[in-house]
Amino acid sequence: MFPPIPNPDLKAATKFGEKDLIRRSASRVAEPAQKLTPMAKLIDVSKCIGCKACQSACLEWNDLREPVGFNDGTYNNPPDLTPTSLTVMKFTEWVNPETRNLEWLIRKDGCMHCADPGCLKACPAPGAIVQYSNGIVDFVHENCIGCGYCVKGCPFNIPRISKADSKAYKCTLCSDRVSVGQGPACAKACPTQAIVFGTKDEMKQWADGRIKDLKSRGYKNAGLYDPPGVGGTHVMYVLHHADQPEIYAGLPRDPRISPLVEIWKGVAKYAGLAVMGAFAVFGVLHHAVMGPNRVTREDESAAKQLTETQS
Ligand code: SF4
Ligand code: SF4
Ligand code: SF4
User: pTM for the complete prediction?
Assistant: First the structure.
């Protein structure tokens, strides 16, 4: 019923560059003449067996080594995302109040690649966060100043600041692989096709098929998680209980960019520019009326005396 989805067509792939940017933090970009097709990764929670092949593939592809940590009494390992674990499986035991059955909900956590990314909006460093026209949100580490504003701006609590180099890290949606026509490493490694990758339209069609199948098996609330509050996402979930996303390790029901970020980028930014402008005008007027600031003979002799008494 669901044949394997091949990698995207290599011939159609191009290297991502400045020409593919639709957003760049703290700066403007020219609208690209030609936009890439929106891509998406679909994670079908109902097919995940929690094997963590995706998590291992991510470490392997990105050449990351997670330091030995501690066991928090769950299968989550490490317990949460880190600068060196860009994706982590989150395991939740949930008692279904209707059936009284214990359900084991397993969700792959990581960046959702929001169409309207709060991280990018909050970032004050020019070019530290970019969004390509296919929807992928990428961090450009050489431009990152480690201020942590992206963490505050993200409604999914995703970026992590590294103690080693004070830079922010998160899943790249394997932009390096996608740019040459390969699917993400995690999707390639998944043995059950719980993770599939393709155009966003294809992924929505694929999700429709899965949701019909789940509904036919009694999951009447099965649905797609593609939250409109952030303009939709380029990582989507098929959930068997889509009416309660929060039971999947706290997946937000209606994620939105914090109003503080909107203020920081809107009113506060323009108020700051207005204050700077007022100081500049004051400086020019002061110079015109009072003339340049000169050091008088008295000032010079007082300074000389002070230097001599201190030496
Ligand atoms: S999930 Fe967070 S880090 Fe990822 S694109 Fe959205 S706002 Fe940015
Ligand atoms: S898309 Fe790439 S970077 Fe993101 S979780 Fe999968 S393997 Fe890791
Ligand atoms: S590889 Fe697939 S089945 Fe295994 S944990 Fe990841 S998503 Fe689940």
Answer: 0.84
